[in-house]
Hints:
The protein is an all-alpha fold. It is built from 5 helices and 2 strands.
Amino acid sequence: xxxxxxxxxxxxxxxxxxLIDNQHKELVALVNDMFNHVTGDYSQEAEYFSQIIHKAxxxxxxxxxxxxxxxxxxxxxxxxxxxxxxxSFILTVVESxxxxxxxxxxxxxxxxxxxxxxxxxxxxxxxxxxxxxxxxIASRKTNGKLSITLADVxxxxx
Length: 158
C-alpha cells in the first residue's frame, strides 16, 4: 500500500505553539494513516478501524484538554464556544463508532473524509481565533520570541 497524504502539514496550519503544533501534526498523521487503510475491503478496514479508533479517541481527548487548559489559563473569551465544538466532534465520532460497532452504515472512507474536513476547518477557523488572541496578548522577549506571562493574561484586552 503506497502512503498518500490526505492532509499535508503546512505553515498555514501552524499556530506557533510547539505543543499544539506537534499535536496537530499527530492528528494529521492519524487522518493520513486512516486514509491509507481505505482499501474497499470491508473486513480489512473493519479490523484496522477496531484497532486504531480507541487510540485515536484518547489522543483527541488529550489534545482537546490541552487546548482547553491553555484557553482557560489565558482567559480566552471564546472558550465556551470552542469547548462546545470539541464536544460536538466527540459525539459525532462516538456515533460513528457505534455505527461501526452495531454494523450500521459505516465507511472508513467517509469517516476519514469527515475527519479531514473537521481537522482542517477546526484549525483554520476555530483554533485560529485563539492563536490570534494568544499572539495579541503575548509579550515579546528580548530574543524576539513571544511569551505569555501572568501580566499578559491579566492585562485588559480591548
